[in-house]
TrEMBL record:
Family: Belongs to the glycosyl hydrolase 81 family.
Hydrolase among keywords: yes
Organism of origin: Arachis hypogaea (Peanut)
Keyword terms of this UniProt record: Carbohydrate metabolism, Cell wall biogenesis/degradation, Glycosidase, Hydrolase, Polysaccharide degradation
Highest taxon listed in the record's lineage: Eukaryota
Domain (Glycosyl hydrolase family 81 C-terminal): residue spans on this chain: 363-717
EC numbers, comma separated: 3.2.1.39
Catalysed transformations (reactions): Hydrolysis of (1->3)-beta-D-glucosidic linkages in (1->3)-beta-D-glucans
UniProt-recorded name of the protein: glucan endo-1,3-beta-D-glucosidase
Pfam family, one: Glyco_hydro81C
GO BP: cell wall organization; polysaccharide catabolic process
The Glycosyl hydrolase family 81 N-terminal domain, residue ranges: 84-357
Signal sequence annotation: none
Length: 732
């Protein structure tokens, strides 16, 4: 798999070598990087496969087994046939399998809440203030079995885009597919269910049709109910509708329920037309670099109607796939309007984001001496015995910080320092891989099937340990970056620990499905419908999943792609690059709030340039660790760590200027520390390099403990020259 990739890289190296005497103006660095990216992408397109963790004939490495004392029991809600596979720990339906399983989740366009023998549907309204936005849950309709004693639901099947809820004793099955305007319910023969509402029912009619019914609620909502065959229904005085399956051929009754998104008769015509075709599951498939293909398994007659959120529409290929966009058929959503798309297969194409070890445009050679002086100080201070923590998150950041020094030294030609960094990386990474790290370590737990740490397995009070699989990609991303760099500068070490390295990476990068023998769940943190990662893990919340650390999410997939480069694994390069590009698109779509944006309410956008906490069902200005006024710390969550790929996360120079002007006044408040000033100045350097350098040189603290270094900061600023011209299109 790696041979053809090596061929391309070798050819490019030779081409680059031949051009060393040519002037920079004639062949700028971005051009050479583009040529390399083009050839690598062509190779990846031929080689991309579903499995990113294939190691030829090598046996996979397994971290020591452990049983966690704090994790919830998955057997309460997953069907027995699923318990033999790795289970999702950050999925869109996670609330359904935690504690009592009765907290709502947002499955576009509805909030859905299971309870004993019932499921409540809500077409949510939006509550807005200057500091938060959230969708309000109200049980607009509740579907309840009438044929059994109350019992909780069971997850009988799930996929990237769907989950199936069974109520075995009630003979009810709910096919919940993300982006489906209908909720589809199967009712077994001779079974029945009732529909009630918290609102008064204004009217109910069968529209002179034996398979379509209209339910008008006092709050103004109009719901349409479609059945696969004629059914018996009754409407009682206590506002309860009851439907019964009277089929004589033992076939289940299929019922589809949809709210009218508006009062237009055209919307009802659309819902009528596509009511006979329904999805039961949906998969996201990686067919080529920077692309994701959605494929739904459908049943019934006709074409499939689904809903696309704004990022889907931005990336949806108009050239491939037989899809039709219904621009005027739309549902409201906290994520923006959900637009109707007809077609059972979509192709989403992300912009290409080059994954490189070094800056894409090169460092200004006049700055080499200043950077080398900083490198001498930063590398000279490296000492593995002086890392004052055994917490995996902070320890990983120390590893990644040192690894950046090696790449900066390589880029500016200060090769003598690399051996010192290599020694530090071996001393810090190796004990985590071979199980000799004192006080902590990685373990594989057998319930949900994934990596946790020693601290996380037995101490729920230990902050920043992944005891509930939270922030998994953020934590492991730092380790993967360090491993990738060490494998690059010491290939012998890389080959020796390749199996361990892949086992670590696979915990959040595995692409195999639930039916495979893989020891980890599929893309543990990445949401293939929203196209970004979540942090939450096995923690329930009425607001669903949450994400705060956008920069660390990009780093995780960027680092995985670098590991692919280090190991000549074109497939891993392709998958990591694709996920990093999608993460960047999603951050720019939902978390970068330009002044003229309409993605959030005017009230919220007026006060915020950057999102604080992004929930699946809520938006907040705040972060977990800082007051609202500390805007510079919100910037931390969006930027760090600073890497070559960061410039693509913040490619819109006009927006960067808005962010700096929004953040800069916070640096004048009483008691503000120098610790984070450098980050604001680093962003300022994108459009005003000289002013930023002057401010940086006056600082004495660069927050080394948080993973940054003066060397990395100077590298960033001195590689911004020409950045504005390079990204002119993004600025317009």
């Amino acid at each position: 798999m790696g041979l053809s990739y090596l061929f391309w890289v070798k050819e490019e190296e030779e081409a680059t070598s031949d051009l060393k005497s040519v002037s920079y103006v004639t062949f700028p660095r971005w051009y050479l990087n583009f040529r390399l990216e083009f050839k690598v992408t062509a190779c990846m397109q031929m080689q991309i496969m579903a499995n990113t963790t294939q190691l030829d004939d090598e046996q996979p490495f397994h971290f020591p087994l452990t049983n966690s004392e704090v994790l919830p029991d998955p057997s309460n809600f997953f069907s027995e046939n699923l318990l033999s596979s790795a289970l999702p720990t950050n999925s869109f339906f996670q609330n359904f399998v935690l504690n009592d399983g009765n907290i709502q989740e947002y499955i576009h366009p509805y909030l859905i809440k299971p309870s004993d023998s019932s499921v409540s549907l809500c077409y949510p309204s939006l509550s807005v203030s200057s500091h938060s936005m959230h969708q309000v849950f109200t049980p607009d309709l509740t579907i309840t079995s009438t044929t059994s004693t109350p019992s909780h639901h069971v997850i009988s099947s799930f996929s990237d885009l769907s989950v199936t809820l069974d109520f075995p004793s009630s003979n009810l099955t709910f096919f919940l597919v993300r982006g489906c305007p209908y909720v589809t319910v199967f009712l077994s023969q001779h079974a029945s269910f009732s529909i009630t509402s918290i609102h008064k029912i204004s009217s109910f009619s069968s529209n002179a049709s034996p398979i379509k019914y209209t339910l008008q609620l006092e709050n103004g909502q109009k719901w349409l109910i479609y059945t696969s065959s004629p059914t018996i229904f009754s409407f009682s005085l206590d506002m309860k509708l009851t439907f019964s399956n009277i089929s004589s051929d033992e076939s289940p009754l299929m019922v589809r329920i949809a709210v009218m998104p508006d009062s237009s008769s055209k919307s009802e015509v659309v819902l009528d037309r596509y009511s006979f075709c329904y999805p039961v599951s949906g998969e996201a498939i990686f067919t080529k670099p920077y692309c994701v293909e959605y494929k739904w398994e459908k049943k019934g007659l006709g074409n499939l109607l689904m809903l696309a959120h704004p990022l889907h529409l931005q990336l949806l290929s108009k050239d491939e796939g037989n899809v039709t966009v219904l621009k005027y058929f739309k549902y409201r959503s906290i994520d923006g309007d959900l637009i109707g798309v007809v077609g059972d297969s979509w192709l989403l194409e992300a912009e290409h984001v080059p994954v490189t070890w070094h800056s894409t445009r090169g460092v200004n050679q006049d700055s080499y001496d200043e950077i080398k002086q900083a490198l001498c100080k930063d590398v000279g201070a490296l000492c593995s015995s002086k890392i004052g923590t055994a917490l995996s998150y902070y320890y990983g950041r120390s590893i990644a910080r040192a690894a950046r020094l090696a790449m900066i030294a390589e880029e500016v030609g200060f090769l003598d320092l690399i051996s010192l960094v290599k020694k530090f990386l071996k001393e810090t990474i190796q004990p985590w891989l071979d199980g000799t790290f004192k006080g902590n370590g990685f373990f594989y737990e057998k319930q949900w099937r994934g990596l946790i740490t020693k601290f996380g397995s037995d101490d729920i009070e230990e902050e920043f340990e992944p005891e509930f699989y939270d922030n998994r990609h953020s934590l492991l991303g730092y380790f993967v970056y360090g491993i990738a760099v060490l494998a690059k500068i010491d290939p012998n070490w890389g080959n020796k620990y390749r199996s361990e390295a892949y086992s670590l990476m696979e915990d959040f990068m595995n692409l195999e499905g639930k039916d495979s023998k893989s020891k980890c769940t599929r893309l543990r943190c990445f949401d293939l419908f929203m196209l970004h990662s979540w942090d939450s893990g096995l923690e329930e919340s009425v607001h669903g999943r949450d994400q705060m650390d956008r920069g660390e999410a990009v780093n995780a997939y960027y680092s995985a792609a670098l590991m692919g480069l280090a190991y000549n694994d074109a497939n891993l390069v392709a998958i990591g690059s694709t996920l990093a590009a999608l993460e960047i698109h999603a951050a720019q779509m939902w978390c970068h709030l330009k002044m003229d944006d309409s993605k959030c309410s005017d009230e919220f956008t007026k006060e915020n340039r950057l999102m604080g906490i992004l929930w699946s069902n809520k938006r907040e200005s705040r972060t977990w660790f800082a007051p609202l006024a500390w805007k510079e710390l919100r910037l931390v969550n969006h930027v760090l760590p600073i890497l070559p790929i960061t410039e693509f996360l913040f490619s819109n120079v006009g927006f960067v200027k808005e962010v700096v002007e929004w953040t800069m006044p916070c640096l004048n408040r009483d008691g503000v520390e120098e610790t984070w000033k450098w980050l604001v100045y680093a962003m300022e350097g994108i459009y005003d390099n000289e002013a930023a350098l002057k401010k940086i040189r006056e600082l004495t603290s660069f927050d080394d403990e948080e993973g940054n270094s003066l060397s990395n900061l100077l590298w960033w600023l001195h590689s911004r020259r020409g950045h504005r011209d390079h990204h002119q299109d993004s600025c317009n």
